Every structure is written in C-alpha cells, then in structure tokens.
Amino acid sequence: MSVLVVGSAALDSVKTPYGEVKDALGGSAFYFAAAASLFAPVKIVAVVGDDFPLEQLDFLKARGVDLAGLEIAKGKTFRWAGIYHPDMNQRDTLLTELNVFQAFSPKLPTEYRKTPYVFLANIHPELQIEVLDQMERPRLVLLDTMNLWISTALGSLKKVMARADVVILNDQEARQLTGEANVIKAAKAVTKLGPKIVIVKKGEHGAFLVGPQNFFTLPAYPLESLYDPTGAGDSFAGGLVGHIAAQASHDDAVLRRAMAYATVVASFAVEKFSVDRLRQIGKKDVEERFKRFSEMTQV
Amino acid sequence: MSVLVVGSAALDSVKTPYGEVKDALGGSAFYFAAAASLFAPVKIVAVVGDDFPLEQLDFLKARGVDLAGLEIAKGKTFRWAGIYHPDMNQRDTLLTELNVFQAFSPKLPTEYRKTPYVFLANIHPELQIEVLDQMERPRLVLLDTMNLWISTALGSLKKVMARADVVILNDQEARQLTGEANVIKAAKAVTKLGPKIVIVKKGEHGAFLVGPQNFFTLPAYPLESLYDPTGAGDSFAGGLVGHIAAQASHDDAVLRRAMAYATVVASFAVEKFSVDRLRQIGKKDVEERFKRFSEMTQV
Do residue A223 and residue B184 have CB atoms under 8 angstroms apart? Predict the structure, then answer.
C-alpha cells in the first residue's frame, strides 16, 4: 500500500568533520521519501522554489515516487545550513532561510486523499492538522515533531497528536513534552495525549516503541564511520512507515521488524552526505543489513 | 563450574536523588559475588578491616559463596562516598579512604588456584598480574579496569590485558585506552592488545561484544526507576561470568545469553541501594526478567 508524506523540502549546506556539501537535497519530505520508497509507493506533498534543481529528484521518480503534490512556488527554496561538532552529537545551525516554505499550505491532490498511510513530518502542527482535514479515513497516521513546536505551538501540537496513531520523537523531545526525566515514563506519558503507539529515537543509542501491549527496544546499527547525521530521523521514519505500508499491517510482529528496518535505513542515511547513500542502495542492500542486524541483536 | 573474583571490598556512603545510605556493603568483589552467585559457585579474594560487619555477608554464605579468601586485616575497611547528580549519569566522589585496601596483596588459598573462571575486578593491574601468577591454567580469564589505571599504570595494564581472554570496560575507557573516538573502532583496537573478546558497557545505553567471529549488541533493560547506579558494572560482570561458568562454555550462543543475563542482573542492581536488590532476588526473578527482556529485543 502507499504512503503519503507531508514535510519540508530544502537545500542543505552541511559541514561535518568529514567534509561538506553546499545546496544538497534535504528536508524531511525528501529524506523520508528516499527511505520509504525502498519499501512502498510514496506520494509527496511539499513546496520548493523556482530555483530548485528538479533533476535531483530523478532517482525518486525512478523508484515510483509520486511528485504530483510537489508545489513549485515563485521564489527561493528553503535553505538550511549547519555545522556538526567533532563528536557529531551536536550541531550549530548557521542559517535558516524559510523562503517559499514560510507560506507553505499543504494542498493534497484529489488522488492523494485516500492514501492509507500518512506520515506528517516535522512541520508546524497547524499544517499537520490541515493535512489530516484533507484526508479520507487513512488507515494509520504517523506524526513527527520537534522542540520548537513543543515550545511555541503546544496547543496545536496536542490537538494533532490526539488525531495521530503513532507519534515519533526523540528522547529530549519526549522529556520536554511531558516533563518526565525518565524517558520510558516520558514515552508512556505521551501515549496519554492520544497516540496508541509512541516511538522514541535515541540517535546512536537506538530506539524503543511503547504501545498498549507492546514494548520493544533496539540498539542502533553499529557504525564505524558516520559522515553526516542530517536526516537520520526522517530516514528512520521512512524505513518504519515503508515497511508497515508494504505489509499493510501494524501488528506487533510487523512493528518489531519495522523498527529494525528503520534502524537499518537510518544507518545507511548517515554514511554519506544528503540522501546520497539512500540514492545508491537498493532493497537487496537493506535486506542484507537487516539480516546482519537481526543476528547482532539475537539473544 | 565455579568462579573466582578478586576485587575491592568496601563500605559505601552514597547519596542519590532518591535517598542515601551510610557504610553500606560495596566494592567490586561483593557486587560481583552477589550477582554471580545467582548462577554459579563463587570464591572471593578481597580484604576488609577488623571493623567490617561480617554478618552482612550471611546472604552470600547462604548462596554458597566461599569466603575463605576474604582476608580480615587489622585496621579500617576501605570506604568510599559519592553523590550522584540528578540525571544519575554523573557523580562526584566525596571520599576515598583506602585504609586496609592500600596494602592489599591478593593471596589465593591453595584450593582456589584451579578455579576455572577468574574475574579480575577493577584493582591495580599489578595486583591482577599477581592473581594470574597464582592460578593454574584457568579456562577463562575476564578482566575489568578503570580510567585511573589507563592514566597511571598503562604498561602493567597492557601486560595483564595480554593475559586476559575477555576485557570488559566502559565506552569512555575504551576510547581513552585506544585514542579511537568511535566506540566500535575502539573496541576492535582493544582486541589488538590481546583479549579475544572485548565487551563495552554503555550504562543506560546497553552494551556490545566484539570477538573474532562475534558481534553482538543489546540495549539496556528499560527501567522506570533507577535508585543507585553504584555497582552496576560489577553486577553486569557477575551476571555475565556467572552464566558462562554455569554453562561451562563461552561459545557464541552462550555469550549472547550471558550478555542478556548481565544486562538483566545489572538492571536489578540499580533498583535499590548497595546490594540490597541483588540480596532480595532469586534465580526465578532473573529468569522472568530475562524472558521479558528477550521478548522486548526480539525483532
């Protein structure tokens, strides 16, 4: 079954201890699509400016990604620039130019409205609500967010969370949102806000899932070389939702495997800058690493 | 089969956000023994002062722990005091009074010398060497250490590491010892120093094992309440070595389960102060949590 993603589309300039890129493909919608399209058909809703190098999306088209919902607006594409610290766990934002993203109002093509799986990537919660208002009874709504919206749009965020089935956030966000210092308690507190399932990402320390009858925890895939952590979270979500959509199920067994696929896809994403590694790999690479990862974590 | 542990014996005064204890049973030998004795017969070599409340060891005796190697020296027992920060990931040492531990020279009773499994807990590497010199062809030598010996006794540490089969250390120590920032690379670099197997503990983020044909990674057991992290590493080692000794094997399947038992036993250890939780539980509690943990990590 297919997946709809609504998120940001950006040109990123990133510097890490291993090199740098300028105006490379970025944004949550593209990272997610590059990951999820390894598993299932993907539809994108996002906005770029008229300066956007559309040929960069050819690999997504080749994977059957539907770009009918990609709006090309007059003006410049959203630009983000950042530099990572030597330990790669922290970064400084050097530039955030919203440009055409500032006035983004997601408009779903009619044929998108019945997409069964929806991933609301990290955009303003009011826009996430606008998306849900245009959907016709999706099977599963998954939602990501960030510290900014917890600080500045908590009311809207809680509204949209109450309409989501699965909320994906990182450990710091879970703590900030709930005031619980213990991350397990924090995740359980998030389920009280509406979503049946909460997934907490802990970066290099793995991820865990809390549900009504589920508790599932995984380490990260062990990497000796990490080139650029940008987009790891959206790639994780892409692997997760992609597997769920491909199986057309989110029962416990599927969710466990989806968490492992998410981990594996995120591990590829950080091996090169931008979506370069996700562009390179195919399903076979994913399956090979999935098998290795399953073996590594098998008690 | 039985396990010999040589390590410190202390009276700890610990303060955490959840309470405090004064002069409670502590030290690597006792934490290790409290954990390992849930699995296999344990022999202790350590030193206490003549002020030591020996009745505190009754629960170890009841589990068949052999205390023939516990020296009672004239003077005061080693005392340590520390206070944990609110996030429990950092602590300040308030007091280190070595007392009788200062002149500790491990003497193995004759009947200890053929013990098949030896755990050299964190003591000066020269003392660890003295222990090995008294052993008769142990089946497996496992060694723990700390940042202090990496800084101040690196030559001796490398000597004893070359005689160990398994080295257990934490992520920071692995980095410090090898100069590798990436913890996987660091662990592999430690195997170059002699031990076939290296186990890296990452506290609340789990642990992994690197061997000639092994790579195994596990998250920590998810705990909603953490009362006192003191002794978690020695309890981890106790669960690990205890299971290996009970199975009289360290093949890949046993090592995987040993890592999971280690994780589970460490999770009990931090649920109360001192060895109070390890004193309370039995093998049935361990097996129940092991089963739950295996389910939680099953892809």
Answer: yes
